[in-house]
Amino acid sequence: MTSTSPTPTDAPPVPAGAADAPAQAVPGKRFASPFAVQTPPGAEGWHSMYPYYALLCDERREFDDGKFWFFDGMHNPEPLYPFDTIMTENWWVAVSQMSTRVWPIPLAGGIDHRIINGYLYISPNAVTDADEIAQRAQEFTVRAGHYYENWDEIYEQWVAKATDCIERLKAIRFAPLPGMEPADRVFEHRGLYSSYDLLKSYGELITNLFEMGSYHFEMLNLGYGAYLTFREFCQTAFPGITDQTIASMVSGIDIMLFRPDDEVRALAELAVELELTDVLLTEEDPSSALAALAALPGGARWLESFEQAKDPWFWFSTGAGYQHSDRAWIDDLRLPFTALRGYITRLLAGEDIRRPLEEILAERVRVTDEYRSYLPTDADRESFDGLVALARQVFPFVENHNFYVEHWHHSMFFSKVRELGEVFVAHGFFDDREDIFYLHRNEIYSALYDLNIGWATGTEARGVTYWRPEIERRRRIREVLKAHPPQPALGVPPDYITEPLTVMLWGITQESVQEWLGSEGRDGGELRGVAASAGRATGRARVIVDPEQLHEVQDGDILVCRITAPSWAPVFSRLSAAVSDVGGIMAHTAIVCREYGLPAVVGTGFATTSLRTGQLIEVDGNTGVVHVVEDVPA
């Protein structure tokens, strides 16, 4: 990560599967200025929902207008709810401090954020001064080297810290303030009462989120960095090698994000064994199915296994885990039960429902051995062996952290916020607990104190009359913003993109940016993106912009989405390929498709706005191209 990868003394033969030439720069072209984006009629005043530091302003107009901004549809595909900005504000600091103040990564700075018409745009900063790069590289080598040399031990410590954080989150409770403070509290002589406990619990909730946010990125940049270094070596040593070929050399590692789907498969096998399939196949409503099973022989045993699987494996968000609307399996059992019925049907037909892990591992060995044989010297082979070993070692954290953070922790966090929302409903501030998400976290502090004042004095709190009309105003504004999709990019195309997450997770590279710039004059029947998972498939497009639509997926469909979530894994067994707007070679769409052997093209920028459900499309995961074969009426 701090120096150029070794270059072979003799150029090796270019292996099969070489990539097409990268997109050429479009001279003089830029994206629209972020300051030129107009507020849709009816959304006036949207700025008031968000903190001042996340907005464009005249004071930094020259700076913001000269930067490259891209829409973060991966984490926030819709206009942000005011409360949900806690997630973007969380990682705004947590990601950036790792690259700038903790490691620091020699060529990468932090990632700036701006909210424009309610949508989150981000912009990576690069370090270009040679002296600063050299100084950072020296510091980085010592700090990162310590983590790489002790990776397994530090990872074990990380799991303990993350689990403890989740257990403390689980213990936080919210309840309406009592009509009279209970006598037992008085006689404890604490001198602290329900009003104090309410504020304290909310403070603990918020700091718990920021604590987990810091853990989230403790090792992640290093994980991506190790992979990027291996990727750089391969691109230098094997000109034209594709990203999915490089990725195949670290595929086949059993990660936690497949565990929930594996649990559903196991429940399907148990249902077949216990002859409970009739109920599970005929009762589409999960609650009805569970109630019916309780009365059947063997039902109690299946239900016991089901309960064991639920916690923690059903704390699995149907989105990226950054929006409260990304409900978890544990909140809505329809998705896992749909998958369960699908697996039961396949088992009864005599099919094997296991993931093709053995084939993936065999391919990993074959590809690794093949490319290693192209290296001309022992020194090159030694470098290659060390880099691929490190990439495989760090890969489990790169993926497993997602289950602890975005799924288990964040899903539980939002459930605690809803619990607090019920307190406001009980005290007449809101009509529905979901209304709490229209308040920024700092506004909730004020609302809680207002609630305490009313409780303490006996005078009706101002919030009883203040918040309902304000929430309704914000609701209307957000609906207008939601009806106006954002542009994928704004500002000036960058000369360099060096921030690891930007490249590996979002798939933003010089090539992808130039593809977006050049898309205006391109045939509307073709999209280009990152070739993320090898293979070619033709099928009907199924455009999914909301997890609710997953129930519409049919066998053989090609999934077209902004980005997938790991919890969508059960539907992948029904797909023939996948296409996404955003994402890089290490995005979840790419990883899941490789593990399921499905062709995938990610980071197209425009898939969900260019393609329509029902179109016959061809996905070429080898070249990163998507073609419309047969159109359907709009």
UniProtKB/TrEMBL annotation:
Chain ranges passing through the membrane: none
Record-linked SUPFAM superfamilies: Phosphohistidine domain
UniProt keyword Kinase, yes or no: yes
Keywords assigned: Kinase, Pyruvate, Transferase
All residue ranges annotated as the PEP-utilising enzyme mobile domain in the record: 554-624
Sequence ranges of Low complexity compositional bias: 16-25
Protein name: Pyruvate,water dikinase
Species per Swiss-Prot/TrEMBL record: Pseudonocardia kunmingensis
